[in-house]
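stage 2 :: seqdesign
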């Protein structure tokens, strides 16, 4: 039987939680922010209370470095220009530039304000940094690290998002109840939009070209919808009590809202601006991570769990126990993992982004490609790779056969998006298996 020596895998159905949870790795005090560097396949965790950044190998889950930075790192972001990670230090009024090749700080620059949040404009490769005391938007050039003349604000900024359709950055200023639109070409404010009280967090709907605001006012609980074409409010919703975070899922074009006080996640349809689902959570929900390739949204909650939400049905697929008080999440597409900062646990929890089948090597066998082949519509089966005299099948994440495969093109367009496994040699004891991601 023709097989690749490095592809022998045993498939076993894991327990419900074990299907998703991999392990917890140590970080430092109060881990808060995360980013993923696709060039070196590392995850960077900014530890607010430790004044450092923990670097995690995306393939092995090992800690490869602990990088000292400035005081109270609060925001971190990757720039593909020259493979750099920028860490913004709230207490030190500085930012540290980490070289992704060496995982050492190559520069520390003064910002002149307390950085809070950040977004990158890919058109000009500049970072727009929300600063408090003084209240400004600072612009950092990713190539030169120069801080350009800041944009002065009348109130402290708390939320930010980038609109790639119009090349704009939107800023939420909490204490004057406004959202400002900044044109990235001219770095000027082109619109000031009155929204509900205390806008606190923003997300951008790429399909309908709209911005959604979360609020820090628990009594008002308004989510405002801003049309980016006209820069006007077109809807105001009350999806739950204290909706303090929002996140966009592009596959179904829906906005997920963390209702902190009512302990629910509300789902808003991006086309109609109507709440289409309300999902109860055992603890107050925090941040989200949408993984459109798989059709899941991951939601952190203060009950030390992460909800895995099916984006198509808006139903909870799994509840995964993690470390203490997860807040922020990030997705690693190469190794198909989701990471959470466990704020009170001083750890980072690592989840498989698709549970159901546990991959375990037998003996010396290894996977040649631990990632997944991405497919749209058609799966082409090559006789040079698989022994087509044996049974070749497509399994879903529960290990169930969903399709028998034949040489050449196989139509998979009717299958739900997600992770599947191509197996040869029988479903129960396959001699060969490869992971694939089927997208819409």
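stage 2 :: out
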């Amino acid at each position: 039987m023709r097989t690749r020596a490095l592809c022998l895998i045993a498939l076993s159905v894991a327990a419900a939680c074990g299907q998703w949870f991999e392990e917890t790795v140590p970080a430092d005090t109060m881990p808060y922010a995360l980013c993923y560097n696709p060039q070196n396949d590392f995850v960077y965790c900014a530890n607010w209370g430790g004044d450092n950044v923990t670097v995690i190998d995306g393939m092995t889950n090992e800690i490869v470095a602990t990088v000292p930075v400035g005081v109270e790192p609060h925001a971190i972001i990757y720039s593909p220009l020259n493979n750099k990670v920028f860490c913004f230090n709230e207490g030190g009024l500085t930012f540290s530039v980490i070289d992704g090749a060496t995982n050492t700080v190559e520069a520390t620059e003064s910002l002149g304000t307390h950085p809070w949040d950040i977004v990158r404009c890919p058109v000009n490769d500049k970072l727009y940094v929300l600063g408090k005391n003084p209240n400004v938007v600072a612009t950092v050039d990713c190539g030169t690290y120069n801080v350009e003349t800041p944009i002065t604000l009348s109130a402290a900024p708390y939320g930010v998002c980038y609109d790639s359709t119009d090349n704009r950055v939107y800023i939420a200023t909490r204490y004057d109840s406004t959202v400002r639109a900044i044109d990235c070409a001219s770095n000027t404010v082109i619109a000031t939009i009155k929204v509900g009280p205390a806008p606190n967090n923003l997300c951008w709907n790429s399909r309908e070209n709209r911005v959604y605001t979360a609020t820090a006012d628990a009594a008002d609980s308004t989510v405002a919808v801003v049309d980016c074409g006209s820069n006007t409010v077109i809807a105001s919703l009350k999806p739950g009590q204290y909706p303090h975070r929002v996140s966009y899922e592009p596959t179904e074009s829906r906005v997920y809202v963390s209702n902190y006080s009512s302990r629910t996640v509300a789902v808003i349809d991006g086309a109609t601006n109507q709440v289409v689902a309300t999902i109860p959570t055992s603890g107050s929900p925090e941040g989200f991570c949408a993984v459109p390739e798989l059709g899941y949204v991951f939601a952190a909650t203060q009950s030390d769990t992460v909800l895995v939400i099916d984006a198509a049905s808006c139903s909870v697929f799994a509840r995964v126990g993690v470390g203490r008080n997860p807040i922020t999440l990030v997705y690693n597409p190469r190794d198909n993992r989701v990471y959470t900062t466990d704020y009170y646990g001083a750890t980072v929890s690592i989840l498989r982004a698709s549970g159901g089948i546990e991959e375990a090597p037998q003996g010396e066998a290894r996977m040649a490609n631990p990632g997944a082949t991405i497919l749209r519509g058609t799966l082409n089966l090559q006789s040079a790779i698989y022994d087509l005299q044996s049974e070749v099948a497509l399994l879903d994440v529960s290990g169930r056969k969903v399709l028998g495969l034949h040489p050449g093109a196989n139509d998979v367009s009717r299958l739900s998006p997600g992770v599947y496994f191509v197996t040869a040699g029988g479903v129960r004891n396959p001699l060969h298996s490869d992971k694939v991601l089927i997208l819409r």
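stage 3 :: structure notes
- The domain at 12-357 is CATH 2.130.10.10 (Methylamine Dehydrogenase; Chain H).
- The first strand starts at residue 9 and ends at 13.
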